[in-house]
Amino acid sequence: MESNEVSRRGVLASAGAVAAGAVLASGGTAAAAPETAASGAVVIRPGDRRYDGLLRGDNFRFTGRPDEIRVVSSTGEVVAAVSEAVRSGRRVAVRSGGHCFEGFTAEPGVRMLLDLSPMNEVGFDARRGAFAVQPGATIGQVCTTLFKRWGVTIPAGGCPEVGAGGHFAGGGYGPLSRRYGSVVDHLYAVEVVVAGADGRVRTVVATREPGDPNRELWWAHTGGGGGNFGVVTRYWLRAPDATGDDPAGLLPPSPSNMLGWLVLWRWDERMTERAFTALLRNFGTWHERNSAPGSPAAGLYAVLMALHRKAGSVQVVVQMDADLPNAKGLLAEFVAEVGAGTGLEPTVNDGVTLPWLHMTTWPGNGEGGDKTTRRSKLKAGYLRRSLTDAQLATIYAKLDDEEGTDKDGMLLIGYGGQIGAVPPGATAVAQRDAIMKAVYQTTWQSETEDNVRLKWIREFYRAVYHETGGVPVPNEVSDGSYINYPDVDLADPEWNTSGVPWSTLYYKDDYPRLQRVKARWDPKNVFHHALGIELPS
Q: What is the maximum span of the chain, computed from C-alpha positions, in angstroms?
């Protein structure tokens, strides 16, 4: 399964298709000769037979109609494209992998869509002593290159088709994050194309070095989310405690093999409310006890998938570096604790040991399944401890109703560990003491189902958080939400009646600081979307 985002097959249940950039890379030419901008970028406009094929990202609910799609291959081409957009007063949006859960790049006002997918180089920059990654590189490409050339890795998401561009900027995480932290804990620098108050477009490099005058721009890209400050054209990665100049020692070592378990409890007459809520409660309390930085169990990454009764089962997917001390013993103890007191007999597949690279980049972990179920809605929340008994009862009732489908459900995703070793203000990831992420999702096939499926998932989420105005207001249990799982409903007073703004739910106390970065680097608000960082009032 995508293991951070468990997998798009796990997180979305609809394994999706190929991101828009990959469609371009696969070939195909328009009837007429391709149009090329003066900068060398490929320009695709309505009427070009490639146009419709490049409009959509992973979620087919959203289809824009920009004047042009500009396929760029270099930082210079990005500067030229943004300069032209600013000069002509056209709104520009940026796409790298196309996996945004909301329609930010398809909003009606977007007139120029920048496709960064050809910018996919991964290498080592000896001058900066850091690994350079362009935003169009997918997580699979990044992990494969780092592994093959240097034997290192980053704690990124397990869906190989997700683009680095948005994943990194939003504070990405993955199967190794409990052990190695967030991706942004290893972010050394960013190269960003920005637009000044005078309309001049230029390239800025910002690093984490204390004396860097541009350091706040680096900080804003350690969890502030994409599409807010400019166009990232390159990331540099190096572990915060790395020393020396040997690339093999500048990022965490890649595991050799991963041990994977799949545990399944059938949803039949024995899956009572008591049994169901015990499973989810046990999963949560295990994470309460085993998510401190340096915990012996920090290397264990688990995702509980509570799908609707019509799907037939509740599952837990677990993976761990097979070479960690007592790996099999820790996994067995975990499975026993999750099932304790339920009265249920699980089916356990405990014999899968695979090379780490295979488990990380195998297409079946991400986008390689049903290419027709491509409409989805996802909602999320951070958890500082297990969901309350009332919340668990609500989840059971909703997943046992008649309106849900076998494509509906919720996930509990293991978090914490080394994530919690970094103070909140050190990066723009504010929820540093969270131990799990909760994800609520529905997927479907036809546009005719949109209203029904959206109503179901919105009512589900509101019911779970009804005591705090329908959203995960930070308190002793919840801690807001994750910007890489964007949900425009959090900004809609019909669905957020808490009185707590969406910006606090995502960024907590970091939001004013992000606004100050916005004011300095994007004072004309060239880059914005429905959940974009707002200029200070």
A: 69
